[in-house]
Structures are given as structure tokens and as C-alpha cells.
Sequence to fold (159 residues):
Amino acid sequence: MQGGPMQGGPMPGPMPGSPLPASPMPGDIHMVRPERPGTLTAAAVLGFVTAAFEFLGGLLWILGGSVVGDLEDAFGTGTDFGTLIMLLGLASLLVGGVYIWGGVMALKCKTPVLFAACGVGLVINIVALVLSEAHNGWLSAVLAIVTLILLAVPASRRF
Fold:
């Protein structure tokens, strides 16, 4: 009795008449895409982290704006700071969503969305800094600046 592959016998070959697998074309060998640079991956991760802070900050701004609006109505001040704060919170939530979208696109090596999210997020956080007399918005502003720097590094731009 002939032994199989586990018994030390001959290995079965390709079936007679079956086609062999195609060899790669000469151009296919050089079609391998290079790895994504670490700076681009770090920028995408910072985009996700900043999105979490923008969502959290946006919810807090909306809740705070609601309280301020109620206090304005109760004391009859005639100002609309509560509405302004709530709009800032809604803008922050929107920017948080764009940060997530930009992070996903950056992982696919397409950076314009993350650039835009960082720019708009930086503007919103500067407005938050001005409104809160330099108490709120520091962390997201710094993260936006660091993300912009990581996206501007030559390794990230070339890719």
C-alpha cells in the first residue's frame, strides 16, 4: 500500500490538465503600496481623541447654555448669552463628527477633511477661550494644533 503525505509517501501533484496559477505581470511587482507613515496614523488617532473631547465639550456647552438661558429669563436681563453658548455647543458637536470623519479619511491617506476639522475646531476653541475668559477650550485647541503639525510633516504630505 502506498503511503500518503503523513506516511512518507509521494506528495500528490497538480491534477493532470488543470491550469497552473498565473504568474505576476512585471508591473505588478512594483504596485505594492508603501506603508502609511506613523505621523499620519498619529494624526488620525489624535483626530479621534479630539472628537471625543469636542463631543463632551459640546454637550457641556449646550447644558450650560440652557442653564444660562433660564437664568437670563428668570432675572429678565434681556441678553442672549445662553443662546450663543448653546450654538457654540452645537458647532462643537458638529466639529466632533467631522473630526471622526477626518480621522477615518486620514487612515485612508486622504487628509483634507482632517485639515478642515482642525481649522474649524481651532476657531471654535478660540471663540470658547474668548467667551470663557481663557478657562475653556485649551485642550482641544492644543490637540488641533498638534494634529495640524503632524499633518504638515513632509512624510504625511508626501503620502
Remarks:
- The longest helix spans residues 38-75.
